[in-house]
Structures are given as structure tokens and as C-alpha cells.
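Section 5: illustrative case.
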């Protein structure tokens, strides 16, 4: 087992070197003796332990680029729910969030318009054909948004598959939505909004939801009643972030590589705020800025800790049929001048 150290010398802006431990890399700038008119570098003796790689002059590798195996990455399409009645009331008076009449807030007519527009976008962009799974918070406004954006077309009675949503579910005044020609949907408690105090963030019992959303899978939710929401205790921001991180870790137990997640502003804000500290400030802002109602943002998450164990389905082992394949840079030991062939 060995490690490699990557250095970019400012004195050699076009030259990236990969150095084995023990090399006298502080003297490496002396290796470049001149640059010809055509831009080619002239070298003195270079030991085999130094591998030189050219790169275009306009390529900035100092920005922290990373390379990861594709099978250790997932694409996630993060969606905040569309406008709910609580958003309208809370904008007028923040204390309205404490009102029981906002219990498990449903979408407004404007919210359904937002859903229709996002649906058009995911179809026009091709996202709808790539998503393998839709995960939704088990709150009414998120499930309405999820099935409206990623579900099938209008449902027709007599079809022998259950609809994703029945007609007028949750005071929606919206026709039923089919479960045909769309990915599976599952409800997960881990991507709920801030827990406690605000009545809009308290869910109904699962037994109430099932007749409204027959094709959503609620099997991962253990308790029928909402035992997580407390009327007098509001979940701390850091606890929301921790819950969000656990949710992202759980995603690695899923085989799907492209997943849509319909959730809430609080969970998105506090979870994504953990990321991007090693990025350019503009990238950090792109990751962490507040989500608007019915906004979709696509991101890639990377498994750097070996949480996921699925082998690659794209990689090909090579050497079939088998044959000699010694790389040319491994043969330089045969040359007295030490130069690779």
C-alpha cells in the first residue's frame, strides 16, 4: 500500500507532477530547463518516480476538483413542496403557525399551479424518465407535490392498479393521479419538516393517508399516529441537520442511483448547510441557498466512506482475452538514462 502526493508548482504553471513519498520534490522546478517557441518543455534527467502530466493552460486545478467512481455516486433531485396554506397565513402573521387550523397544511390553488409548472419542466428536461424512486415526507403538502410532479397522468376508473392520489385528496379540488408509467413512491419520516409546536408540521395518522394516496408505500413508517411531533417542544436546528444527515446516509442503503426527494425548507436548509465548506463561496451558496416553493435542485452525493457496497455496473475488467500488457512507463528501469519509453 502506498500513497501519492499531488503538488502544483506556481513556478511551473503548465506542469502537474505526481510524486512518490521520499522524492526531493522541492528541487523539481529545476527539472524544467527551458520552454521552446512551440510551448514544449525541455527536461533534464527525470527519475522514474516522477510522472509528468500536461494540462491546458486554461484549466485551473487549484479549485479542488475531485474524482470518484461512478457507482459511489447518486444523483438526487431535491424539491421543496409547493405553496401551502400555512405559507400564506405565516407570511401575514408568524404566530399563525401555532394555530391548529393549519394542521397538516395542504396546497393552495397557487401551489397546484406551481406543481403543474414543475411537472412540465421535469418532463421537458428528461428528469422524469431518469428518476428511479420518489421519496416524500409523509405530510400532506409534500405528498400532493410529489404525486403531482412525478406521478402518472390522470387516473381513469376501472384500471386495475391503485391511483397515487384519489380525487380531491386533502381538499385539493384536484382530479385523481395515476400510478402508471412513473417510478415507485415511498413516504419516509426522516425527511419531515422541523418537528413540534407548529401545527402545520404535524401529520395525520397513516391509516388516514392510505385511502387518499393508495399507491404510496407507507411501510417504512412504524407508528400509525404521529409520535414525533410534540406541542410544546420545537426540534433544534442542529437536530434537524443531524436527522437530515442520517437520512442521506440511509439513501446509500437503496439500490437506486437517481432519486427525487420532496421535502421541506427547514430540513433542506439545515442539512445542506453542513456541506460546501471546502468549496468556492459561490458553490457553497449554490448548495445552501434557501429553496423557494416548488423549487427543484439537482445534486450529486458521493460515498467516500464505503457506506454503499453495490459493485459498478458500468466498469469492465479488461484483459479479455488475457495477454501481456506491461505499461511503457513501468519499463524505464531497463534504460540506463532513466527515461520512460
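Designed sequence:
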Amino acid at each position: 500500500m502506498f500513497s501519492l502526493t499531488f503538488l502544483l508548482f506556481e513556478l511551473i504553471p503548465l506542469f502537474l507532477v505526481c510524486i512518490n513519498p521520499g522524492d526531493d520534490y522541492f528541487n523539481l522546478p529545476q527539472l524544467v530547463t527551458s520552454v521552446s517557441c512551440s510551448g514544449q518543455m525541455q527536461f533534464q534527467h527525470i527519475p522514474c518516480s516522477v510522472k509528468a502530466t500536461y494540462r491546458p493552460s486554461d484549466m485551473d486545478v487549484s479549485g479542488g476538483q475531485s474524482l470518484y467512481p461512478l457507482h459511489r455516486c447518486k444523483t438526487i433531485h431535491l424539491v421543496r413542496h409547493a405553496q401551502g396554506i400555512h405559507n400564506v397565513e405565516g407570511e401575514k402573521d408568524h404566530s399563525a403557525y401555532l394555530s391548529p387550523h393549519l394542521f397538516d397544511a395542504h396546497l393552495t390553488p397557487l401551489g397546484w399551479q406551481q406543481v403543474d409548472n414543475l411537472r412540465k419542466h421535469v418532463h421537458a428536461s428528461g428528469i422524469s424518465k431518469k428518476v428511479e424512486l420518489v421519496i416524500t415526507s409523509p405530510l400532506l403538502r409534500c405528498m400532493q407535490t410529489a404525486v403531482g410532479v412525478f406521478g402518472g397522468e390522470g387516473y381513469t376508473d376501472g384500471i386495475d392498479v391503485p391511483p397515487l392520489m384519489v380525487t380531491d385528496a386533502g381538499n385539493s379540488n384536484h382530479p385523481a393521479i395515476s400510478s402508471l408509467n412513473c417510478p415507485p413512491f415511498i413516504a419516509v419520516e426522516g425527511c419531515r419538516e422541523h418537528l413540534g409546536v407548529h401545527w402545520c408540521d404535524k401529520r395525520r395518522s397513516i391509516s388516514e393517508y392510505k385511502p387518499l394516496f393508495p399507491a404510496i408505500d407507507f411501510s417504512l413508517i412504524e407508528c400509525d399516529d404521529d409520535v414525533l411531533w410534540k406541542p410544546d417542544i420545537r426540534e433544534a436546528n442542529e437536530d434537524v441537520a443531524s436527522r437530515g444527515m442520517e437520512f442521506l446516509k440511509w439513501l446509500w442503503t437503496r439500490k437506486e442511483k437517481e432519486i427525487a426527494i420532496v421535502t421541506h425548507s427547514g430540513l433542506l436548509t439545515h442539512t445542506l448547510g453542513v456541506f460546501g465548506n471546502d468549496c468556492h463561496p459561490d458553490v457553497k451558496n449554490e448548495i445552501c441557498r434557501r429553496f423557494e416553493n416548488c423549487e427543484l435542485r439537482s445534486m450529486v452525493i458521493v460515498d467516500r466512506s464505503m457506506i454503499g457496497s453495490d459493485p459498478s455496473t458500468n466498469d469492465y475488467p479488461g484483459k479479455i482475452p488475457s495477454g501481456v500488457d506491461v505499461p511503457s512507463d513501468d519499463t524505464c528501469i531497463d534504460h540506463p538514462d532513466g527515461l520512460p519509453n
